[in-house]
Amino acid sequence: MANVADNKQSELVQLLNSIEQALKTAKLWQSSPPEASKLSSCEPFCIDTLAAHEWLQWIFMPRIYALLEAGAPLPNQFSMVAYFEEALKEEKHATLVITRLKQLETLLNTL
User: Fold this and answer.
1) Contact assessment for residue 24 and residue 37, using Cβ atoms and an 8 Å cutoff
2) Mean of pLDDT values over 61-88
3) All domains of the chain, ordered by start, with CATH?
4) CA 47, 48, 54, 56 torsion: positive or negative?
């Protein structure tokens, strides 16, 4: 049973890496973080202070990595793809980002 969990975690790390690469390819990856005040929003996805891809890079991905590192339970039974489909619809090269997010959502919802 531990091997299944280890395989899922390894798959998750690979998927997070591929999301990072997809964001870079779409030129949505940022080299500098937003101001700290923008990261402390109480709204879902920090919708009032961050763009969707900023939330993904600076909030969501670090939290998933932290949970993995701590051996803590990972989120499941959630949906974020619809939000990103809408939020990134004007981005020319965001198709791969959406595809990877669908894979991430499926993986986390099966853990």
Assistant:
1) no
2) 93
3) 2-30+45-108 (1.20.1440.40)
4) negative
